[in-house]
Design brief:
By secondary structure, this protein is α/β, with parallel strands linked by helices. It is built from 13 helices and 13 strands. The longest helix has 22 residues. The protein is globular and about 60 Å long. Keywords: ATP-binding, Carbohydrate metabolism, Kinase, Nucleotide-binding, Transferase. It comes from Ancylobacter radicis.
Length: 384
């Protein structure tokens, strides 16, 4: 193993809840150690602005365009990432000697079918801010990690499977394993220790439930799945929703946060449901979409390990276990982080990008061959 690098990942996901910052030490193949992680929550006004930005991005065809509020949101998002890093380094000054930072940016549009994905974030501006916070020669910044895969005909998502593979190696002898990330969108990685990981987005995770709860109540989301636990699942509605062609396509495949909004509005019948029944039905849809992937896998997984914000949703975890018939555990039960995993993954990916190692594979994004990616900014702002 090469000398492990100190790497920080910055992740602002499709749940639009805040910025995750996490540090690991890695050589890009395995993880030598886990450092601290923190989440810096967005204020409601900025969340609302992000929702507007996603709406303004819907008709984009040029990934460099910034219509509507997008230019403003990109500037503010970049500033908030800088503030999150400053807060992290203030709490953990020993890590100011970080070697590399992986910056995901904020996805506002994902349309791989037209070779378009848009992550807001001004890499050079953040790199300048970083150099004032770090010690020694400064940190290398890696950003825009999805674009190369999409430009080459891949789905551009999910990118975390290669990190899931590295984590799975620490669990003992290889067994068919499914790692599920529940953000705004759900994605899975199948790992068996025999071949490249198989991965795809499975369907909606938190986004639809969060938006529904916010529209019906003063709450931003269904904490711990409590509201859904009071409700009754409309199984007929779930069956109608599961007729969407996406659920019957084999991996690899990926989604935009809002891909199912119109479909749900047309087929779920939420207006006739109570808040609890609607939350239960949408939560069941998330579980059913994961179950729908299982027939496409080489073997039945022995365990389902769940990370991301949705891993705190006890109702969703219970539904996953029942619908899949697979032992379902939250990531912290196997020594992984529920909340930091995606940020850790982009730290890991940044090191791989720095070394020219693949970030995506034919079995994870559908790209023709294993492909690296990312824009690398060395200290002194030299782009390579």
């Amino acid at each position: 193993m090469d000398r492990p690098l100190k790497a920080i990942g910055l992740m602002s996901g499709t749940s639009l809840d805040g910025i995750d910052v996490a540090l690991i030490e890695t050589d890009g193949e395995s993880v030598a150690s886990f450092g601290p992680g923190r989440t810096y929550v967005y204020e409601q006004a900025f969340r609302d602005l992000l929702v507007r930005a996603i709406a303004d991005a819907r008709e984009m065809t040029d990934r460099n365009a910034r219509p509507g509020v997008l230019a403003r949101v990109e500037r503010l998002s970049t500033e908030r990432h800088g503030q999150a890093l400053a807060s992290f380094f203030k709490e953990f000054p020993a890590y100011r000697d970080v070697d590399v930072i992986g910056y995901h940016g904020q996805t506002v549009l994902h349309r791989p079918e037209i070779r378009l994905t848009v992550q807001l974030g001004d890499g050079p501006a953040l790199a300048r801010a970083v150099q004032g916070m770090t010690t020694g020669e400064g940190a290398t910044l890696v950003y825009d990690m999805r674009a190369a895969d999409v430009a080459a005909g891949g789905q551009g998502a999910p990118l975390v499977p290669v990190y899931h593979r590295a984590l799975a190696r620490g669990l003992g002898p290889p067994k068919p394993l499914l790692v599920l990330n529940l953000g705004g969108v759900a994605n899975v990685t199948y790992v068996d220790g025999m071949s490249d990981p198989i991965a795809c987005d499975t369907g909606p995770a938190n986004a639809l439930v969060d938006d529904f709860i916010k529209a019906r109540t003063d709450l931003p989301f269904d904490e711990d799945g409590l509201i859904a636990s009071w409700g009754k699942v409309d199984e007929a509605a779930v069956a109608r929703l599961m007729t969407h062609p996406f659920f019957h396509r084999p991996p690899p495949k990926s989604l935009d946060r809002n891909d199912f909004r119109a479909w749900v509005n047309e087929h779920a019948g939420l207006d006739a449901m109570s808040t609890a029944d609607g939350a239960a039905t949408l939560t069941a849809l998330s579980a059913a979409s994961v179950d729908a992937v299982l027939p496409f896998l080489p073997a039945r997984p022995t365990r389902l390990i769940v990370a991301g914000g949705g891993a705190h949703n006890a109702t969703l975890l219970r539904m996953l276990s029942v619908r899949t018939g697979i032992e379902t555990v939250a990531a912290d039960k196997v020594g992984w982080s529920i909340d930091d995993m995606e940020a850790q993954a982009f730290a890991f990916l940044a090191v791989r990008a720095l070394k020219g190692l693949p970030l995506s594979f034919p079995s994870t994004t559908g790209v023709a061959h294993p492909l690296t990616g990312g824009v690398v900014l060395r200290p002194g702002m030299q782009r390579i």
